[in-house]
Write a structure and sequence with these properties.
The chain is mainly beta and 648 residues long. The protein folds into 3 domains: 4-253, no CATH class; 301-513, Jelly Rolls, CATH 2.60.120; 516-646, no CATH class. It has 3 helices and 54 strands. The chain has a 9-stranded mixed sheet with strand order 42-47-44-45-21-52-51-54-49, with no helix packed on it. Strands 3-2-5-9-11 form a 5-stranded antiparallel sheet, with no helix packed on it. The protein has a 5-stranded mixed sheet with strand order 8-16-13-18-19, with no helix packed on it. Strand 18 (213-220) and strand 19 (225-231) form a beta hairpin. It is rod-shaped and about 125 Å long. The protein starts with 18 loop residues before the first helix and ends with a strand.
């Protein structure tokens, strides 16, 4: 029943599942029969054009006992009523008829199973109709239909529709009442598919339902897609046609990811990360040297070195430095969220009219002057030296071969007085080569020069008003060589002799931060990523975020190559299969680069291992293909650090 371009309803060429019944009726026992068939004149016209039979149209006719007769066909054309000729078993009575012939799957009792395929051809040439038994067949439409007009310039090859009730599959027709029963569960999608570009009106038929919203996915000849949401009001009734209008010729097509079945595991393969050495005992959990008065791998006044002309007694005003004069102590006042038990506290005190600031170092304190600002006072790295405390060795240096981007440190500063001239505490990190590096107030007596590879210093740690604060102190690099040592100096005042008696500084969880993260893609070239710093998108990868989810697909929006990926932005990365890529956040490499704009991102990410969030949570799964990534509903418990998941 070819209908020209505006006839009847849409449905693609429907799959025939009745070949076995047709074979059983070949041969003797069949008698010829002729009947008339008319098309409905209401509800089913398209743009005012009524459907008409065409020569060669075929209908399926069941006998009243459920036998499918050989196809009835017509040679008439151009009218709503036509004569159909066929054959039936001798002595049988014609029952219900179905158009087209291929859509009638089977009949059992008074129930006919009708098939609506998930893939159709988009034409208006084959709509599913049925007619009750009688001397002639008066057909009624069974399905609902959508129509969309497509410009050929878009080269669209597939139009897929997803709704919130079954759209394709098998339904049952009661031959007596001519009512169609749609299953409550089943395929929610249906598509028009073509090997060449669609042009003009495309029709897609579907089972009647109660959907109020329609998601439509258009796929072009390059495999890229665009996701569109449409109102589906009034398409629930059989015979109704919903005209969705024209597809804009300016649509922007993109890559997509699949929404797959549930998965219990993330597709994640950790790459070998760059060397990321950390501060030894930077969490201040180990205190086995001097009880609670000195953390391991750190030094203070217990291990001070003095010159031959200045004694410890001259500096401190009382014999060799003993426990009563210590200015370091373990504290159970730890920073929020810490998994440890302790922090380190240092404080200032007055010695012979001089404010002696609390001083903690990974090197060694050296004093040759009783004046706080004297040129002979400094902290330094003693490459070979160590102290013996309670028969345990504690080095005067910290070996360190990393190139971090910043130092993260938690502090709580409580100055006791009101020194407005020198109100700040300090932290200083010097990365240097193999030299006994000196750092003190008088720069002329310190090392510096080419030996200092990088420095991270904060001389403005202010009163934190009783609260812990996390500081991020960036490193400034002068040379590209790899350090050998880190000299870390922490003091209750940034100025020697400054501050007041009993200024307290609490320190916890020093961490070297490395803005260089390597990811390794999975076997199909995909990975997810979320970083805590701005990072340059490397060459060789395409980075996407997700802005829509529909029809089992996630729309991927590419982020500009060579731009800066903003920190805390969750993305999907496509590269070569099993390859490693470095996302660099070092300031020198970001200079002159523009920051990418990401808007409406449905991907969420985490910087640490975390519990699966409530609600919909889809992770990159092993269901990926070589062409498309796949997100599966996550049934596991822990989302891995620096990865992303998909929400709706």
């Amino acid at each position: 029943m070819k209908k020209s371009s505006y006839t009847l309803l849409c449905a693609a060429v429907l799959v025939c599942a009745a070949s076995c019944q047709k074979e059983s009726l070949k041969g003797d026992g069949l008698v010829p029969v002729t009947t008339s068939a008319s098309l409905p004149d209401t509800k089913v016209n398209i743009d005012g054009v009524s459907p008409k039979w065409q020569s060669g149209d075929r209908i399926a006719v069941f006998t009243t006992d459920g036998t499918l007769c050989p196809a009835f066909s017509t040679s008439d054309s151009g009218s709503q009523s036509a004569t159909f000729s066929g054959s039936k078993p001798d002595g049988s009575t014609l029952g219900v008829a179905v158009y087209p012939y291929e859509s009638a799957v089977s009949m059992s009792g008074s129930t006919v199973t009708i098939s609506v395929p998930a893939e159709q051809d988009g034409s208006a040439a084959t709509a599913v109709m049925a007619a009750p038994a009688g001397e002639s067949f008066n057909f009624v439409n069974l399905l609902s239909v959508v129509k969309v007009s497509v410009p050929s310039s878009l080269n669209i090859r597939r139009i897929e529709i997803l709704r919130d009730s079954p759209a394709s599959g098998n339904a049952t027709l009661n031959a007596g009442s001519m009512t169609l029963t749609v299953p409550s569960t089943g395929a929610r999608s249906v598509a028009a598919v073509s090997s060449s570009a669609f042009s003009g009106d495309v029709y897609i038929s579907m089972l009647p339902g109660n959907s109020k919203k329609l998601d439509m996915v258009l796929t072009n000849g390059s495999g890229k897609m665009v996701l569109i949401s449409k109102d589906l009001t009034s398409v629930a009734t059989a015979g109704r046609i919903k005209n969705l209008g024209s597809v804009p010729s300016s649509l922007s097509f993109s890559d997509v990811a699949l929404i797959g079945s549930s998965t219990s595991a993330q597709s994640y393969s950790a790459a070998t990360q760059p060397s990321k050495p950390q501060v030894t005992n930077g969490d201040f959990e180990t205190w086995t040297l001097d009880g609670e008065h000195l953390p391991n791998n750190w030094n203070s006044f217990q291990t001070i070195e003095t010159s031959g002309v200045v004694s410890v007694g001259a500096i401190f005003g009382s014999g060799p430095y003993d426990s009563s004069n210590r200015q370091v102590k373990r504290s159970s006042d730890k920073r929020p969220g810490s998994s440890g038990s302790y922090s380190c506290s240092i404080w200032s005190r007055k010695i012979t009219r001089v404010i002696a600031q609390g001083n903690l170092t990974t090197g060694r304190i050296y004093a040759s002057n009783v004046t706080a600002t004297g040129t002979g006072n400094y902290n330094y790295t003693d490459q070979d030296g160590s102290a013996t405390i309670n028969k345990k060795s504690n080095p005067y240096h910290m070996e360190f071969a990393g190139r971090p981007d910043s130092l993260a440190i938690w502090v709580k500063f409580a100055p006791a007085g009101n020194d407005t001239q020198h109100p700040y505490a300090k932290v200083e990190v010097i990365l240097h080569d193999k030299v006994d590096y000196k750092s003190g107030y008088n720069a002329s007596d310190c090392t510096g020069g080419t030996h200092k590879i990088a420095e991270a210093t904060d001389m403005n740690i202010a009163n934190s008003n009783g609260k812990w604060k996390r500081l991020s102190v960036p490193f400034n690099y002068g040379y590209s060589t790899t350090p050998s040592f880190a000299l870390i100096n922490i003091a209750t005042n940034a100025y020697p002799g400054g501050g007041s008696v009993n200024d307290y500084l609490y320190i916890d969880d020093l961490e070297m931060i490395y803005n260089l993260y390597n990811i390794k893609t999975d076997a199909t070239g995909w990975a997810t990523l979320c970083l805590g710093y701005d990072a340059l998108i490397p060459s060789g990868v395409t980075v996407y975020y997700v802005d829509k989810v529909a029809c089992g697909y996630a729309s991927l929006v590419p982020v500009s190559a060579g731009s800066i990926l903003p920190k805390n932005t969750a993305v999907l990365v496509k590269g070569s299969a099993g390859a490693t890529y470095s996302f660099n956040g070092r300031a020198a490499d970001l200079n002159g680069k523009s920051k990418a704009s990401v808007s409406g991102n449905l991907l969420k990410g985490t910087l640490v291992d975390c519990s699966k969030p409530s609600g919909t949570c889809r992770v990159l799964s092993g269901q990926s293909t070589s062409a498309l990534a796949a997100f599966g509903e996550f049934s596991g418990s822990t989302i891995k650090a620096n990865t992303a998941w998909l929400t709706e």
